[in-house]
Amino acid sequence: SEAAHAYLQLLLLQHIPRDMRAAVSLIEFIIKISALDMALATEAYHVSRVGTLQQSLRVLRDRTHELRRLVDTDTFTGLASHAHILHVLERSLADADQSPVSLITADIDRFKDINDQYGHLVGDHVIRGVARRMTSVARRNDAVGRCGGDEFMVVLRRTSPASVARFARRLCARVGSYRFKIDGIKIRVTVSVGVAVAADGEGARPLIARADNALYRAKRDGRNRVVVDVPSGAESSTPTGHDDAICHRPAAGTR
What we know:
Strand content: 15-25%
Distance between the termini: 80 Å
Oligomer: single chain
Largest sheet: 6 strands, mixed
Number of strands: 8
Shape: elongated
Structural class: alpha+beta
Mean pLDDT: 81
Radius of gyration: 34 Å
Order of helices and strands: HHHEHHEEHEEEHEE
């Protein structure tokens, strides 16, 4: 500190014989040396503090990144969280320009019956298994999220309506063709899928509503199927703008 260096100057001056204290140059030399020592000590202190602050910033950035990852991830399945998948959808629609955006909503058919018959632990295993099957179909640019319970969303970008329909059928069939094995129990599950292709300038809420309506149609029409809602004027493989198809037919005698 400055007080310590002033005290050092005083000690040095006290040890100079009285008959030499008139030597101004020597006194000035002592003052300069002690001032230099103080400057060096101050610089070393600030360098140490800067290093400590930089380390603290790195730790803070790492913690912030981890917190963001936890907020953006559904820890139960490893998929995007509900809040994050909605954010991805809104951002994709805002950046869409000439790039098509589509939304897929899906849920597990008769999931309550699975919980009631086999218990919630088996139900949890089924949810995680369906999540894995869905991500195995998704491409790198697709975002797959869980909306809670047994409900899922997939945001697809730069994909034509016809390609989205094929993707949805493939996703539905990938789940329906798999037999889950949990503690000796073998279960086949299916999903119903609703698809909505975004119209120009359409927002997230109306797009979600159309995808949900398509999903309800899939449920109403027998489950284990895909219903696609394509806005008028968009490229489509179905002239009516709607596509309804069964995804997977389980073999006889299987659940």
